[in-house]
Amino acid sequence: MDKIYLDNAATTPLDEAVISEMIAAMRSFGNPSSTHSFGQDAKILIENVRRNIAGYLNVSPSEIVFTSCGTESNNMIIKSCVYHLGVERIITSPLEHKCVAETIMEMKSRNGVEVIFLRPDKNGDLNLNELETALKASGKKTLVSLMHANNEIGNILDIKKAALICKENGALYHSDTVQSMAHYPLDFSEIPVDFASCSAHKFHGPKGSGFAFIRKSSGLKSLITGGPQERSLRAGTENVAGIVGLGKAMDICIHNMERYSSHIQQVKEYAVNKISAAVPGIKFNGRSAEKESLYTVLSLLLPFNDPLIGLKLDMKGIAVSQGSACSSGASKPSMVMMMILDDEEMKKTTPLRISFSHLTTIQEIDSLTAALKEIAENQAIEKINV
């Protein structure tokens, strides 16, 4: 049975060119902190990647700090803002990734940080006028943490507008850009975010490699101490091969962005039309079916309740997700779904996320559609028999 992978928002297949670059990098075995030639060979590999990433984002290389993933980057940024920068209030939303949401709530319980939530509407959109109002309501030092592109429903926030509002009101702004980095052009000289995060495995790079963008004027300090690595912002010997893999994957995606995005947009539009015709009553969550959404994500709302839908599709060789990867084992709907669906909808429907890459084909969408149609028809038959 040929398998079909449609869970690219969780992770993407490694590009073969990335694997080759990583294998070559593994031969530079020296410790990048060593001053001899073996160490400096490894150090050069890291700094070349740092310089290239900084060029893509139009920032200083010293503002790129390599980490293990977006989760670590988000934790480091949020916690250091509280511990070291005196942040007493955080403005965020229920749409954030679990690693952001749980870290913020930890800062509330352990450090007494005030937390304000901007509530999304039924489409999953945030009103940035409410952000401005909230920022003017108190003189406390504030961090705003709002993601660029939602990993479940695909809604995109105007991060430039959000960043400008924060700047005008003296607040720090952090954006989780894990789903949008290397998929959209981001110029941080024009978008005045203070902090952003990245995970390589979201754009065909290796797991366990990511980076944090930390504006040098922010004054952020390290949480992991014990060495001068990463400008003393993240102690510990660097993952040289992982960083090289991240850099290669980003190079490939940046240089092929127009071609990749055009292909994925076409596949996504085809999926919307094909699945809508095949499964009567199907809806799409958030803005995911619209053109101005995260083009790699399509969030479906099937017109029947079937908690085993993911398993049924997997048995047919089709990999999808019933939510974000971090919540795949959860027994209840994600916070995002609870924000946009009412209790009755959640009882009678089934959310399903399919996510694409430049490797996704029209034929794969046809196979998914046929499988969903069969499952929907079986559900209808079972309902009649009951």
TrEMBL record:
Pfam families: Aminotran_5. GO terms for molecular function: cysteine desulfurase activity; iron-sulfur cluster binding; metal ion binding. Its cofactor is pyridoxal 5'-phosphate. It catalyses: (sulfur carrier)-H + L-cysteine = (sulfur carrier)-SH + L-alanine. Residues 4-368 form the Aminotransferase class V domain. This is cysteine desulfurase. PANTHER family: CYSTEINE DESULFURASE, CYSTEINE DESULFURYLASE FAMILY MEMBER. Its EC number is 2.8.1.7. InterPro entries: Aminotrans_V_dom, Aminotrans_V_PyrdxlP_BS, Cysteine_dSase, PyrdxlP-dep_Trfase, PyrdxlP-dep_Trfase_major, PyrdxlP-dep_Trfase_small. It is an enzyme of class 2 (transferase).
